[in-house]
Amino acid sequence: MTHASRFRPARRSLLKAGAAGLAAAAVPFAANVRAQSVPVIRYATGGGIGPNEIQTVIFLDWMQKNVLQGYGKAYTVDMTFTRGTPEAATLLAAGQADMATLSFAVFANTLVKDAVPGGLTVVADNYQDGRAGYASMSYFVLDSSPIKTVADLRGKKIAINAYGSAVDLALRVRLKKEGIDPRKDAQIVEIGFPNIAAAIREGRVDAGVLILPFMANEEAKGGLRVVFNGGESFGEFAPIFHVVTNSYLKAQPAAVKAFLADYVRGLQWLYDPKNRKQAVEITAAFTKTPAAALDAYFMTKGDYYRDPHACVSPALIQRPIDAMYKEGLLPKPIDVAANTNLSLLPFGCKV
Amino acid sequence: MLGLRAFVLRWSSLALLVAAWELAVVTRVADPQFVPALHDVARALLDLAFEKDLWEGLAVSTMRALVGLALGTAGGVLIGTLMATSARANAFLGPLVATTYSLPKASLVPLFLLWFGVGNTTNILTVFLATLLPVVVGTYQGVKSVPQVLVWSARALGTSPLAIVLRVQIPGALLPILTGVRVALGFSWVLTLSAEMIAAKTGIGKLIFVYGESGAYAYMFAGIGMILAVAYAADRLLVAITARLLHWNDGIAAHREGTA
Questions:
Q1: Nearest chain B Cα to A77, which residue?
Q2: In what helix (H) or strand (E) does residue A194 lie, and over which residues does it extend?
Q3: Between residues 108 and 147 of chain A, which touch chain B (CB distance below 8 Å)?
Q4: ipTM, 2 decimals?
């Protein structure tokens, strides 16, 4: 065997292997090209997980495969988990996200500053607070506290999660109703949501706000009592909701429509009593929360209210934004209805 | 016997911390709702070990940390050497290094998100900036501390200026450079996780954030434990590589024994 012939089979094998490699490489490429023909919605969450932002459950892999109908055909979702709604708004402003969950406060500031080129539109509900018979963010004190009414909060130290947040605003509005100036007559301090109950129990603050799931856990433990809730400040209101950039809505209206159709489909599947066990298990597995703890409030009257058709009245967003303006937290008023489009939702809305 | 005593001494602080943590939770001194018992963290870790999210997240975060560190090291050695060998470069870059050294690099993440979006570029750039300066400082000090007589000797033998840098000054400065890299390695994990916890699609920082937000603290600590284990392993690997590369260096014993 010559030197050349010894290497010939090896070269042939190499060519074969190369061709096979190229073919193998082309398969995912072809799949990728196909996937790219389906519009991608870059979605930024607002810092909540699981029950606090139900879309993080609705668009889980299992739901995509077993419940959603338009996913992978009319649209796909590229979800970014952000620390909070201000970061989600940053991504929208930077053109790094097409849709997001925003709070009313961040939504209002984003519109006033004209931070998102082309503007934003509210397209669906996430959850609502202050709805009679459902959970509402609440200000708690120790059972043994002398604070019985809002008037007793004068001169007291009160914990919120962040200045300018929805719960902060609810506190300021409620204190004002009682003739208490939140800037002078009370000490408002920032503590992370997970630590507020401990701060109340240890006497580091006189009162503090709790939201779900911390509220459900602490109520189960006992020893705390509600002084007032968000409903008393604003009535019913929408703390967070889904928005889309106007530029994306103009470019991909069908994708947004299909996304919202699946959102409502997923919501209804989760709320269907015959799916409850599975819905709780899926959510528990995602959030790593004990299923029993989740089962105690998730999608019951102990949870926030979610509209089954994902409809949200602009008035529910307008109310707290008007309160922001009155409080000097917003330089000019905004018209929420002018920036809302609920016609993309599958069942229409009567608001 | 002496080896066993040293081993026990070396690990006793960690063992004490673990025991104090478990005791505080079991005796309810710490609220188990916020500080999970270590056996719960271990259980969570076992649970996560069977999920691809953990391993994918760990792989992505490790890639970001190490690529950022590699770029930071390359840039740091270049800038540090320039500053140490050129008075002009030192005068030009010195104030920039001194003023930006204490800048918390995590504060730049929201700005990088605006410019580069969510993902690898933002993360790697943040790590690059955080790891660059310790390596610059280590390289500068290392090159400056190379005995001048070695440089003169090389020059006398006709070695070119570039070869003096590459064959005399940088090899002579390897210990301070690698000490700088070791400091930078710690920063690389901190910054990777910090960036991922602000906005991310993937990564162990995202998982830690998600579990923290849903109050699943055992899982959150399991994620932190995993990154600690990887970071510790990377540190020990770097120390071992340093010891092998510099076995001839008198200062290597102190470097190796610095921390366990």
A1: B201
A2: helix A193-201
A3: none
A4: 0.75
Token readout for A259 is 């996304």
pTM for the whole thing? 0.80
Residues of B in contact with A93 (CB under 8 A): 114
Q: Are the beta carbons of B118 and A80 separated by less than 8 Å?
A: yes
Residue pLDDT tens, chain B, 260 long: 567 888 888 788 888 998 998 888 888 888 776 788 888 999 999 999 998 889 999 999 999 999 999 999 999 999 999 999 999 999 999 999 888 888 888 888 888 888 888 889 999 999 999 999 999 999 999 999 999 999 999 999 999 999 999 999 999 999 999 999 999 999 999 999 999 988 888 999 999 988 887 778 899 999 999 999 999 999 999 999 988 888 877 666 666 655 54
Residues 6+ apart with CB under 8 A from A218: A140, A197, A210, A224
| Burial degree of A106 (CB within 10 A; 0-12, 13-18, 19+) | buried
B-chain CB neighbours of A50 within 8 Å are 214
Q: How far apart are CA B143 and CA B195, in angstroms?
A: 33
Choose from A60, A282, A288 for mutation: most chain B CBs within 10 A: A288
